[in-house]
Design a protein that fits this description.
Layout (H helix, E strand, L loop, with lengths): L1 H4 L11 H8 L6 E2 L11 H9 L13 H15 L9 E4 L2 H11 L7 E5 L5 H8 L3 E5 L2 H4 L5 E7 L11 H14 L2 E5 L17 H4 L6 E6 L12 E5 L1 H14 L5 H11 L3 H23 L3 E3 L6 E5 L4 H10 L2 E2 L1 E2 L11 E4 L4 H10 L3
Helix pairs in contact: 2-13, 3-11, 4-11, 5-6, 12-14
């Protein structure tokens, strides 16, 4: 076991514990804007679907029910503009994090192979590479920075965690064309796609990007943010049927099954757009309040045109900013969690309740 753990970085969130204690000591309690976990209720229609499927004594299938696959293909067409998405083009997964962490291993990657991801990125992309003994490589521009002869898996992330940056359609077209020319497999993490604020995120599955074929590309989507289902572990892949077929066989052997009640809840969630619009309104109001308060407090906000976060700086080391805000009872994530390039930024989530967001705004002087 130590041979595996020795390949992994220190779990970043453990470093935040002393600052969490400081923030928790505030007389009015902590305002936790660090992790970005949903706090609003699971929509009732989803809860009802889960309960109705609670009597599920048998094993679920890894590929999911026909109803689930219909929901996945229908949503991809309706929301992403994807064309001709069949059951072979979709695969449910047990939350997106396990997929990110174990994908390089499931693809058979190892020593000598490179897994590439954005220079500012979700730490699990690197973890997945290290678990497979592959080489993690960070990039600013994959076309300019990477050796396509060595890169076997290219992660895109738009909208970005942590920066909220959205890749323009022309940029996606350029990257996908380059990857296909060199036989590089593209996985696009699009878990925040329905949370665009100042830009409209585009999927790699959009016909303008993929040219009407899903060869060599897979999109990753999650219901954690758009439907408050982080606790359900409901996510899915869509794209290249050959890649997903291989993953399906591997995941069958590994028993990586989405629980049957969660499959039923996913069908209900993807079939309803009303709750998504209502949740967007909540986040939009919280985002506006925090953005104004942070700017008035002397912060500069970069990117942040989408996702559930504000990427902010006071042009000082990130841990000094974390300490400053912890003294106000506000906990945020240091930018260096997401790579050395973030060492003068912090990530501020707007997933707290309205009451806690209002408390943060007051403490910031708003």
């Amino acid at each position: 076991m130590s041979a595996v753990t020795d390949r992994l970085p220190t779990f970043p969130w453990d470093k935040l514990e002393p600052y969490k204690a400081t923030a928790a000591a505030h007389p009015d309690g902590i305002v936790d804007l660090s992790v970005g976990t949903p706090v609003d209720p699971v929509p009732e229609l989803i809860q009802r679907a889960l309960v109705a499927a609670a009597d599920s004594p048998g094993y679920p299938t890894v590929w999911g029910t026909v109803e689930l696959r219909d929901a996945l293909t229908g949503w991809a067409g309706r929301r992403l503009g994807a064309r001709g998405v069949a059951h072979a083009n979709v695969l449910p997964v047990v939350g997106s994090k396990e997929l990110v962490a174990w994908l390089p291993t499931q693809l058979g990657l190892g020593p000598g192979d490179q897994v590439a991801y954005p220079r500012l990125a979700y730490p699990t992309y690197e973890v997945g590479a290290r678990l497979a003994r592959a080489e993690p490589v960070a990039y600013n521009d994959p076309v300019a920075d990477l050796d396509p002869a060595r890169v076997k898996l290219l992660w895109l992330n738009s909208p970005s965690n942590p920066t909220g940056r959205v890749l323009a359609k022309d940029e996606l077209i350029r990257i996908v064309a380059w990857a296909r020319e060199h036989g590089v497999l593209v996985f696009s993490d699009e878990c925040y796609l329905e949370l665009g604020w100042e830009a409209e995120p585009v999927s790699v599955l959009h016909p303008d990007v993929c040219g009407g074929t899903y060869e060599g590309i897979v999109a990753v989507h999650s219901l954690s943010k758009r439907s408050n289902l982080a606790g359900y572990r409901a996510a899915f892949l869509a794209g290249d049927a050959g890649v997903l077929g291989d993953l399906l066989e591997i995941r069958k052997h590994g028993g990586m099954m989405t629980p049957a009640p969660v499959q039923a809840a996913t069908v209900a969630a993807l079939g309803d757009d009303t709750h998504v619009a209502e949740q967007r309104e909540r986040y939009a109001a919280r985002r506006a309040a925090l953005r104004g308060a942070l700017e008035a407090h002397g912060f500069r906000i970069e990117h942040s045109e989408a996702s559930l976060y504000l990427w902010v700086t006071r042009d000082q080391p990130c841990w000094e900013t974390v300490a400053h805000l912890a003294g106000l009872g506000i906990l945020v994530a240091p930018g260096d969690f997401y790579g050395p390039a973030g060492d003068r930024f912090v990530r501020v989530a707007f997933t707290a309740t309205d009451e806690r967001v209002a408390a943060a705004v007051k403490r910031l002087g708003g």
